[in-house]
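Q: I'm building a small set of examples for a reading group on sequence design. Run inverse folding on the following structure and report the sequence directly after it, with nothing in between.
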């Protein structure tokens, strides 16, 4: 979308001749597309062409189509006029809004799935509406930004809020009636949460009360000592910390001593979030500042477990640490079930989500300015004090973002709890069992609502932690120097953790590789190639289709995430915080819930998409988009706004500033989002398991189906093909990421 290079309509002269404005081109697109393309379709082919459904054919029989095209002609005339005034901008806003309403009305009146013509017409009117909001002065941003905000708002509303709204409605709308019975039954179920267990000698409630009181008194003592000289001034702060600590102590004690899916999922998510973030930060720091020669291995090894579907990693843990596992049974002679339950699930999730934390944090660590650390060293600061007072505060935005994403990923994961849970209930598995086992979509929706509220709490904690800090390190001024080495007391434990993590990962992947070359792992270890030979007829085509859909989805996922990060991080407009929050909601609920939401929302009517490849692509895009948003926001917090102000002073538009100033500096974050989106799409299972059909199957669903039917070797073979292909892609993108990271600071061009 091209725009006029002006700062705001109020600054535009009253008459500017000789230019055709952006609304003109959008109106022309509406007319051409609305006349030549079909407004509706039959079947699942979104690109199908039917001359009897084009706007030209419908002119004499569908008054909404005629009216919409007349409005487009009026906008075409207005677009040829001089740059719009506030009045003409409001006229265009009214006409474009009416055009969107008429387009939607035509689709619902006909009751058939949308066609390309309706999409082109609606998006054209939407773009003119966003530009008109800027021209009219109702949105104090440039035309490009106004159109981008509306596009993002509509896409998030349709592909995130609408499916979630469908699930919310399902949780309280049962058999055509509004009721809260499903909520009450679920919350009172021991499977969900059992606090006071009548079969134990100790009262869990009373124990939690004592722990809460102890935590409150401890926090009070610490605050009194810290603010002993100004107690009156900090009285509110002291009281708040005391109450919060008491509440946290009570809640953690209740969760630790309680039973049920809520307790297991919360404790697991907190533990996995802390461990995965710590490991991801360690690997990111070692990759940039380690004095050991293993630094070059950080990129490949720290992202290795990310390229495998999580449930395959869980199966590998059973092979190695199960009752008949290679380590537990053959080497140690143990017949243990210790890894069936929270321990095994936690280890599998840490292995799966540490690469996510690493990808978020590696760009942040790479962007740190060595000059600040050199200044601290000049003042004779020790390595430990330098890290504690300079490096760590600058890392806090990335650490908070990584922790947030890991916690949400743990809450949403159902593959590992399903395979390694050992019968222990978790919230995601209860969602899955409610749908697949008990066929109760209402109960599954209740679990989705609960997970949504839990995610809101994580957002609030993150906001409180980061609200008053400044983390600018990229100012546009030349910087020199080398990053400061890590203190030995910090580096040696990090290296040890990396070596152990790597060895464990190698063992697990070796078990999957070995299992693909034997008849049946653990029972008949005869060497065979039959599993790979079978892939030529039943697996290779599905793998190629998965790669194609993942590649298509990765680009818009990364770019949309980057655009949302820019819009919410750099522009001021009403609803900015709401846009950021809603864009992250796809990570807030289990993938199974989002998948069922997509099935319910897009199964019939004008928005019917089930059975198409497009619904899978959209599920990939809006499921993986939040990683690009968080990494983009973390990187933007380190870029001084004076760079953009200088560009604006030279009369560059928002689009020019975004393209020539910010984007080159954020290329590492965009590539990280691209790499993550592609890999996550290739290994996705929970959300898309309800969206696939025999004609649109995916590799992960096929692997899970084979394993479920006993064809473990064939599943291992396809897993190895998937892992090898993902390894090549990740290694290539890592090379690009390192090169762009080194050159990002010199990439600003005018």
């Amino acid at each position: 979308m091209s725009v006029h290079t002006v700062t705001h309509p109020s600054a535009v002269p009253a008459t500017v001749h000789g230019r055709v404005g952006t609304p003109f081109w959008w109106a022309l697109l509406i007319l051409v597309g609305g006349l030549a393309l079909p407004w509706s379709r039959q079947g699942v082919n979104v690109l199908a062409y039917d001359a009897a459904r084009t706007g030209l054919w419908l002119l004499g029989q569908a008054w909404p189509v005629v009216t919409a095209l007349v409005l487009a002609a009026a906008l075409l005339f207005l677009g040829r006029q001089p740059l719009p005034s506030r009045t003409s901008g409001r006229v265009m806003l009214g006409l474009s809004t009416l055009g969107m309403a008429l387009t939607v009305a035509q689709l619902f009146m006909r009751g058939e799935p949308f066609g390309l013509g309706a999409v082109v017409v609606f998006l054209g009117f939407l773009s003119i509406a966003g530009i008109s909001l800027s021209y009219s002065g109702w949105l104090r941003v440039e035309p490009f930004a106004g159109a981008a905000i509306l596009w993002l708002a509509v896409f998030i509303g349709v592909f995130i809020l609408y499916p979630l709204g469908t699930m919310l409605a399902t949780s309280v709308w049962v058999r055509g009636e509004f009721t809260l019975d499903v909520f009450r039954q679920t919350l009172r179920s021991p499977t969900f949460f059992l606090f006071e267990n009548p079969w134990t000698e100790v009262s869990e409630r009373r124990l939690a009360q004592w722990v809460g009181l102890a935590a409150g008194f401890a926090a009070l003592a610490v605050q009194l000592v810290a603010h002993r000289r100004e107690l009156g001034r900090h009285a509110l702060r002291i009281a708040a910390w005391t109450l919060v600590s008491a509440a946290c102590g009570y809640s953690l004690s209740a969760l630790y001593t309680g039973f049920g899916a809520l307790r297991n999922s919360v404790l697991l998510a907190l533990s996995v979030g802390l461990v995965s973030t710590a490991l991801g930060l360690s690997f990111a720091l070692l990759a940039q500042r380690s004095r050991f020669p293993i630094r070059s291995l950080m990129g490949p090894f720290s992202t290795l477990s990310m390229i495998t579907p999580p449930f395959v990693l869980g199966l590998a843990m059973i092979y190695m640490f199960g009752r008949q596992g290679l380590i537990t049974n053959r080497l140690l002679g143990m017949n243990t079930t210790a890894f069936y339950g929270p321990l095994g699930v936690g280890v599998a999730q840490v292995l799966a989500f540490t690469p996510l934390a690493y990808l978020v944090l590696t760009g942040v660590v790479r962007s740190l300015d060595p000059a600040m650390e050199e200044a601290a060293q000049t003042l004779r600061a020790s390595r430990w004090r330098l890290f504690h007072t300079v490096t760590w505060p600058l890392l806090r935005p990335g650490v908070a973002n990584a922790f947030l994403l890991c916690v949400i990923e743990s809450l949403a994961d159902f593959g590992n709890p399903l395979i390694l849970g050992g019968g222990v209930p978790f919230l995601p598995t209860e969602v899955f069992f409610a749908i697949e086992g008990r066929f109760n979509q209402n109960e599954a929706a209740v679990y989705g609502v609960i997970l949504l509220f839990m995610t809101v709490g994580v957002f609030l904690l993150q906001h409180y932690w980061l609200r008053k800090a400044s983390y600018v390190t990229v100012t546009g001024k030349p910087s020199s120097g080398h990053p400061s080495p890590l203190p030995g007391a910090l580096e040696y434990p990090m290296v040890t953790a990396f070596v152990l993590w790597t060895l464990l990962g190698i063992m697990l992947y070796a078990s999957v590789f070995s299992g693909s070359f034997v008849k049946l792992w653990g029972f008949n270890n005869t060497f065979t190639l039959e599993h790979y030979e079978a892939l030529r007829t039943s697996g290779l085509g599905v793998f190629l289709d998965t790669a194609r859909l993942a590649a298509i989805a990765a680009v818009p996922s990364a770019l949309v995430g980057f655009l949302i990060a820019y819009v919410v991080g750099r522009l001021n407009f009403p609803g900015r915080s709401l846009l950021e929050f809603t864009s992250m909601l796809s990570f807030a609920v289990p993938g199974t819930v989002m998948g069922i939401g997509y099935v319910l929302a897009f199964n019939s009517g004008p928005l019917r998409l089930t059975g198409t490849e497009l619904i899978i692509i959209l599920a990939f895009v809006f499921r993986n988009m939040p990683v690009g948003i968080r990494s983009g926001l973390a990187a933007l917090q380190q870029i001084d706004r004076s760079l953009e102000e200088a560009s604006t002073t030279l009369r560059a538009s928002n689009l020019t500033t975004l393209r020539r100033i910010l984007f080159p500096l954020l290329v590492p974050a965009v590539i990280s989002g691209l790499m993550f989106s592609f890999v996550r799409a290739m290994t996705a299972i929970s959300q898309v398991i309800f969206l696939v059909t025999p004609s649109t199957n995916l590799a992960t669903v096929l692997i899970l189906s084979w394993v479920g039917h006993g064809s473990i070797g064939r599943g291992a073979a396809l897993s190895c093909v998937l892992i090898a292909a993902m390894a090549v892609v990740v290694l290539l993108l890592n090379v690009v990421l390192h090169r762009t990271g080194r050159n990002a600071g010199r990439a600003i061009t005018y």
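The radius of gyration is 28 Å.
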